[in-house]
Amino acid sequence: MSGDRRRQIEAERRSGEADLLARVRLRDLAAFEGLYRLYHPRLSRFVTSLVRRHPLVEEVVNDTMMVLWDKPESYGGQAKLSTWLYAIAYRKAIRARLRQDEPVEDGHRPELGDDDAPPDRDFGRRRAAAILQSAIEELSPDHRAVVHLTYFQEIGYREIADILGCPVDTVKTRMFHARRHLKRKLSGELADWI
Amino acid sequence: MGNVIPLHGDPHETTQRLMPWFLTDMLDPAEHALVEGHLASCAECAAELISEERLRIDLLALPGAPAGDWAALRDRALASQPRPGWWASRGLASRVGLIAAGQAAILLLGIGVYDRLRPAPQAEYHALSAPQPAAHTGNIILIFRPDSRERAMRAALDAVGARLVDGPTAAGAYVLAVPQARRDAALDLLRKRPDIVLAQPIDAAP
């Protein structure tokens, strides 16, 4: 996507969000639902990169959205609404993980497939995806958060530093090491199957 | 993995570390130009960019998070009434009492501040070492030569019947007071003395 088109979409989105936010300040539940539907997929995916259990993911995402509902005035408008929400979700996820997250089998992990099945292209893709998923889970939550915000949310490193509350060089370094780890784990798989 | 690698401005290193945000078009124009320029001349980085793009596509293809449950959050939002502020939660009588107490506190504070800022009354006596208020009754300013002796200085004052009211100042000057009717005659006499450098009136002519 070109930079101009992206900026245009971003401006339209921010304008729409500002309208919804103004209505949320007046306790308009429909506007709150609009922001929930806009942000739930993104927040949920982000929080999934930080905590494992699905009920805990939902709890963190809902707690984050409730901050918006209960204290909309605490969003000052200096940062983007997304940055503000991600930062809240990040802090809540870190606390939730320390409190009660336990490693469990991830129900969304791509299946490796049957080792005896013929090596067709789909099998190769599934295998690469499973290895990638496994490699991501070997990263620390802070490294996963940077990868996620960079590639899934397409957020710049300065804004990521704001969200995670760390220096920009730390963001670059985390991303560098995370990419190196993922590529090392995937060596051969990407070249063979993609 | 926690050690921070600082960037030192090497275009190769910078490109390697900014590559993800180059791919997502999230660099500022100067950074974008730097990475783009380096990619055109570095085969290693160009290959790395292809590998990075493959990694990004593969990451994006991973399963997303499950759908959310709006109904649960809606119920929570409906149950969450905005909490009245501390002030709004008070009864009318309590609010009136608090206003009265506040006004009384402000009045007392004002009296206290006034008392502290009010000029102190003049003391009835001064210690000997206390600085004396400067006299403003002099009408002649006088500067002696630096090598003048005390006796000559005293003689000059006696000769014109002057009284020393201030000095020496920072410039070595003295302020004298002579009766106004004799001020000009005193100035003439003082100016003729060899041990005096300057004698000038400092008030209006009589």
TrEMBL record, chain B:
<protein>
    <submittedName>
        <fullName>Zf-HC2 domain-containing protein</fullName>
    </submittedName>
</protein>
<dbReference type="InterPro" id="IPR041916">
    <property type="entry name" value="Anti_sigma_zinc_sf"/>
</dbReference>
<dbReference type="InterPro" id="IPR027383">
    <property type="entry name" value="Znf_put"/>
</dbReference>
<dbReference type="Pfam" id="PF13490">
    <property type="entry name" value="zf-HC2"/>
</dbReference>
<feature type="domain" description="Putative zinc-finger">
    <location>
        <begin position="15"/>
        <end position="46"/>
    </location>
</feature>
